[in-house]
Amino acid sequence: LESLRLRLRSEGTPKERGVFWRRLMQSQAPDQVLARQEASADKIVEGLLSGENISAGEAFLVGAGPGDPDLLTFRALRLIQMSDVVFYDRLVSPAILSLLPDDCERHYVGKARSDHAVPQDQINQRLVDEALKGRRVLRLKGGDPFIFGRGGEEIQQLAEAGIPFQVVPGITAASGCSSYAGIPLTHRDHAQSVRFVTGHLKDGTCNLPWDELIHPQQTLVIYMGLVGLPEICNQLIAHGMPAETPIALIEKGTLPDQQVHTGTLASMPEYVAGRKIQAPTLTIVGSVVSLHSTLNWRSGQ
Ligand code: SAH
């Protein structure tokens, strides 16, 4: 930038130079420099200087993290701030949406459980259509786009249509909730492995490989498991997990109104039935949950 600044000092009006800098910062050039592809960054700079139109459309599949905007990555924030149109899910918090440029066109494509607001193939197609118009399309998803996020399906269609895209990882609910609840997912005295599964019900049951989930030194993290929670607890006990195994339910993890509910496999179904627990919730099962009472650094915040 320093050498470019010297080179451009006497070229054009200040306003023209302003336009150039903005277009440069919004182009692929900064990413190319960060990726040590300086030659291709130079090419973009020369293209912009010669007035070539490089505003071909592109798409960004971005993980927005579990809710607290402080948990966005720098790259996510940078792409959020330069998007022309956004397609976002229910799990993307209002605080994160407030970071979008004022003139960014917003489309809600979220789903309530079992009620798909916009069918998945239509979302995929709309991303392609908007990028083909030459726009910068932001697909903003809760958590990490590649963990129970269908991110793979969405970029497959972009790839088939030849649209340039990038994927930005996000802090997945398991990481965000475990940190903010003071429940380490692994710990030398408790668990040497951790397993992420979905507790989503299909035809009223969870199709999980129960026998594989029963390991004394393994933490189990269950996404989308609130409705199926009684069945999950009962099945784990039926397949040999001790009924006294600790379990935590983290409601609205990382958000200001986060709540952590703890109990045992035996007690949790009744506990949940007696309360109005709100989605999103994440379930953690295993002896690491016992650490919550001493490591809960957010209590009183
Ligand atoms: N791609 C997302 C997960 C999408 S599946 C990720 O990586 O986090 C949706 C499930 O994620 C919810 O049903 C819930 O189990 C979990 N989840 C997402 N955000 C959460 C939050 N803030 N608090 C608790 N659970 C959350």
Structural notes for this entry:
- The chain is an alpha/beta fold.
- It has 3 domains: 2-49, no CATH class; 58-171, Tetrapyrrole methylase, N-terminal domain (Cobalt-precorrin-4 Transmethylase, domain 1), CATH 3.40.1010.10; 174-295, Tetrapyrrole methylase, C-terminal domain (Methyltransferase, Cobalt-precorrin-4 Transmethylase, Domain 2).
- The chain is built from 13 helices and 12 strands.
- It has helices spanning 2-8, 14-26, 29-34, 38-49, 74-80, 94-97, 120-132, 151-160, 173-181, 210-213, 229-238, 268-273, 292-295, and strands at residues 58-63, 85-88, 105-108, 111-112, 115-116, 136-141, 165-168, 193-198, 218-223, 246-251, 259-264, 281-285.
- Strands 3-2-6-1-7 form a 5-stranded parallel beta sheet, sandwiched between helices.
- Helix 7 crosses helix 8.
- The longest helix is centred in the first third of the chain and has 13 residues, at 14-26.
- It is elongated.
- The mean pLDDT is 91.
- The structure holds S-adenosyl-L-homocysteine.
- Residues 66-67, 91, 141-144, 147-149, 172-173, 177, 223-224, 250, 252-255, 280-282 line the site of S-adenosyl-L-homocysteine (SAH).
- S-adenosyl-L-homocysteine is lined by residues 66-67, 91, 141-144, 147-149, 172-173, 177, 223-224, 250, 252-255, 280-282.
